[in-house]
Amino acid sequence: MEGYLVFPLEGEPTLITFHGRPHPSWVKDNRSGHPTYSKAISESLRELHLEGASIGIVGLSGYYGELGFPHTTYVSLTSNFPGAKFEDATDIVVKARRIKSPAEIRCFELGCEVGEKVIQAIIDTAKVGVTDREIKLKVMDTVFRNGCDFASMLLLGAGKELTHGGQIPLQSPPRTLEQGDVILAEFDARYLGYMAQFNQPFSVGEPSKEWRDIFNVALEAFNNGFRTLRPGITAGELDEALISPIREAGYVRTNPAFHALGLSLEEPIGNYPHQTYHKPDLSLTLEAGMVLEFEPSVVTSDRKKGLTLGSPVLITETGCKLLSKFWKPEFRVV
């Protein structure tokens, strides 16, 4: 996350990271910048004779704007180049990354293969008397042994009343699984940086009618979104297709019903009830080659029970398809 790339219109780029050691990469010029990255960036810009140029900075705006380009580095760069014109170029890179190449899609497919193995590992491990920590350990072991790593999350929780795996921190005391427990898992299987994300509910024994009703609404929302998704619709139309079954059934939501995937959680992102200041661009037109994570969130009005359901979905020229070979939107019983 501490990397900077100086990308000139002409000539080779320079990658500036913590250690600067060469590694297999299409970027041949690797340099160390830690702990004063602005000095290394400035050196590269001077080598390119860009003292009076127009220089784009990526990471000043958008969904990650306040988590992006560091202020101290920005101030140092602009002070070092008083004759240059610095501009926000975040949208250029965001738009370029929105449509995934065949190679990028293949990375998602390989991550999905590992994600499916993780789900099977949970099924094989989760039994009455086993702790949730043992399941988390098995999840991590499966991801790493099969050539992936984690991106932003391993969220897994179990109990009689919960709405999302993320509400139970990894450091919580272990819980021993009981009959009737529900396990909620949200995790990434990341291959070469690309996040194959899954939202999967499990039940220890047959779920209660209340839990089954919650799942059936999530399934209806997922299927409605899947039927609706195709190139040319807007993010708002997809958002409505996913959330209308939830609203009509009398449930509430806590998470967005979908978001785009790439090297991180990407835009477009649906309405996000828990993020008060997030104003999604629902006018964005969806295009073939975009990869989305469906994750409709269905929560009871008292906010005691709920779940999310989803996996990576590719927008094709004629509609959409799941990027996983065998995953289905199911309530898995263990």
User: Structural class of the secondary elements?
Assistant: alpha+beta
Total number of distinct structural domains: 2
Oligomeric grouping of the chains: single chain
- Helix percent reads 25-40%
What letter string, H or E per element, gives the SSE order? EEEHEHEHHHEEEHHEEEEEEEE
Structure at a glance:
The protein has 334 residues and is an alpha+beta fold.
Fold and architecture overview:
This protein has 334 residues and is α+β, with helices and mostly antiparallel strands. The protein has 2 domains: 4-97, no CATH class; 102-333, Creatine Amidinohydrolase (Alpha-Beta Complex), CATH 3.90.230. 31% of the residues lie in helices and 22% in strands. It has 7 helices and 16 strands. The chain has helices at 37-47, 71-80, 90-98, 102-125, 132-145, 209-228, 235-248; strands at residues 4-6, 14-17, 29-32, 54-57, 85-88, 154-159, 182-191, 194-203, 258-261, 265-269, 291-294, 297-299, 306-308, 312-315, 320-322, 332-333. The strands form 5 sheets. The chain has a 5-stranded antiparallel sheet, sandwiched between helices. Helix 1 packs parallel to helix 2 (71-80), helix 4 packs antiparallel against helix 5 and helix 6 runs antiparallel to helix 7. The longest helix has 24 residues, at 102-125. The two termini are 38 Å apart. The mean pLDDT is 94.
Features:
alpha+beta; 7 helices; 2 domains; Creatine Amidinohydrolase; 16 strands; 334 residues
Any chance you could write out the topology, listing elements then pairs?
Elements: E1 4-6, E2 14-17, E3 29-32, H1 37-47, E4 54-57, H2 71-80, E5 85-88, H3 90-98, H4 102-125, H5 132-145, E6 154-159, E7 182-191, E8 194-203, H6 209-228, H7 235-248, E9 258-261, E10 265-269, E11 291-294, E12 297-299, E13 306-308, E14 312-315, E15 320-322, E16 332-333
Parallel strand pairs: 2-3, 4-5, 8-16
Antiparallel strand pairs: 1-2, 6-7, 7-8, 9-10, 9-11, 11-14, 12-13, 14-15
Helix pairs in contact: 1-2, 4-5, 6-7
